[in-house]
Structure formats: C-alpha cells, structure tokens
Amino acid sequence: MQPTDDFDPVRVAKSLLRRRREGALATLMRDGGAPYCSLVNLASAPDGAPVLLISRLAVHTRNLLADPRVSLMLDERAEGDPLEGARIMLMGEAVAAGSDELPTLRMRYLAAHPGAEAYIDFTDFSLYRIITSGAHLVAGFGRIVDLAASDYLTDLTDADDLLAAEPSAVAHMNADHLIALNLYATRLLAAAAADWRCTGLDPEGLDLQADTRVLRLDFPERVTTAAQLRDMLKRMADIARSAP
Questions:
Q1: What's the pTM?
Q2: Could you read off the pLDDT of 158-199 as tens digits, one per residue?
Q3: Helical ranges in 67-116 per DSSP H
Q4: 146-173 burial by CB neighbour count: b if 16+ within 10 A, else e?
Q5: d(C-alpha 42, C-alpha 60), whole Å
Q6: Element containing residue 94 per DSSP (H, E)
Q7: Nearest Cα to 13, choosing from 108, 168, 136?
Q8: Would you call 201 helix, strand, or coil by DSSP?
Q9: Which of 36, 113, 168, 237 is least surrounded by CB atoms within 10 angstroms?
Q10: Reduced to 3 states, what is the DSSP secondary structure of residue 145?
Q11: How far is CA 76 from CA 21, 34, 159, 180, in A?
Q12: What domain of life does the UniProt record list for this protein's source (predicted)?
C-alpha cells in the first residue's frame, strides 16, 4: 500500500511520539525464547525520543540489560476499531540515561507522570532513553510507511540556549500563564477547557497536559533561543485570543 496524497507521515509520527504516555515494549528473553512484551509508561526527550522509568526487578529490564534491542509500539487509542487509529512501531536500543542528560529526562518524565515522584529515586529504578534506528507507521488504509529516525526526531542543532531555558520557561508558564496555556488548548487545538499545564518545550513546539490528556502545539517556525521562544509564545497567545 502507498500513502495517499493528503497523508503527512512525519507529522503523524512526531505527534504520536510527543503525545503518547504509554506503550507496549518488546524485549528479547534472556534464555533465547520468545520476545517478551509489557506495558510501560513513557515521556519524551527534547528530541522526541521515548524515555522510560523502569525497575531492575522487572523482566523487561533484565532482558534489555542482557540485550538492549527493543521495539516500542505507540498507538492513537482511537474510539471504535483500534486498527483505524494511527500507530507507530519504533525499533532501536534502550540505553540508560547518561549523567549529562539525567536532569532533563527526570524533569520531563515527572512532568508527564507526577506520581512517579514517589519512587523515581528508588535504587532499583533508572531512566532509559530509546535510541531508535527506524519506525514503521500505520495510520489507516493506504497510509503505511517506513521512516528513518531523522524523519521523526527533532533536530536540536543550535538549540542549546532554548534547552537550557526549558526548565525555567516551563515553570514560568505554569506559574504565571495558565490562561495562555488554556487558550492554546481550547482555541488552537479545539480541546475542552481544563487545568492545562506545560510539560515540555523544544524547537518545534510545546507539550500540554491535563490529567491523562496530552496535546501538542506545533510552532509555525523553529525556535532555538529563549528570546525566540518568548516571542513565539506571545505570538501564539495573540493568535489564540483572536480565534473564534
């Protein structure tokens, strides 16, 4: 099957990576037996790569410590026939977070899963990033395509200033600009009013969450600095206020 003309596989793949908060993780059994599949919670790294918080007591963790190769399935959870919703299968390796990226991944994971604060520092739990080598996207009849990691991961080149400002920017938005966040959700993304909070920022957009509902606000242009981010968020708020 070939994708239809109105299908943007890159956009769909990026949306799933940013919005899904759980997925099916497949690892290889250490005894050489059948693959092992388990449900895991996840967040996204600044480039969109999936981030897991897993315990060494779990079978999947013991499996990937022996062989880091994994697959991760994310799906749209559409109403009705689940096969009519978009889903993506990511292939790659699960790698323990390095000391340099650990604060960022910890912040992003807790923003997505606040309840993990109760156990994230337990000695048997660790954060892992999935280093993907490619993906298989299925988004309905005639909408099936294989993607390279460069297609769906966000380019972080020259974005050091923005990434350094992310923690303070997220905290500032959640402390002082909840009205703007709600406008983004309701006016620009057609969501119901709720306690929408910002959980992350990157060069391509902003992530919003209210309880288990997650939205992705794409920026019309790439931003790489804190100054550009301020201008973009004000611009998007102005657009939202003028929307019907």
A1: 0.93
A2: 999 999 999 999 999 999 999 999 999 999 999 999 999 999
A3: 102-112
A4: ebebeebbbebeebeebbebbbebbeeb
A5: 14
A6: strand 87-96
A7: 136
A8: strand
A9: 168
A10: strand
A11: 11, 26, 29, 26
A12: Bacteria
Residue 163: its H or E element: helix 160-176
| 8 A C-beta contact, residue 126 and residue 18 | no
**Arithmetic mean of pLDDT over the chain:** 94
Residue-range domain boundaries for the chain: 9-152, 160-239
CATH of 160-239, one of 2.60.20.10, 3.30.380.10, 3.30.930.10, 3.20.180.10: 3.20.180.10
* CATH entry, 9-152, from 2.30.110.10, 1.10.150.130, 3.40.930.10, 2.60.120.10: 2.30.110.10
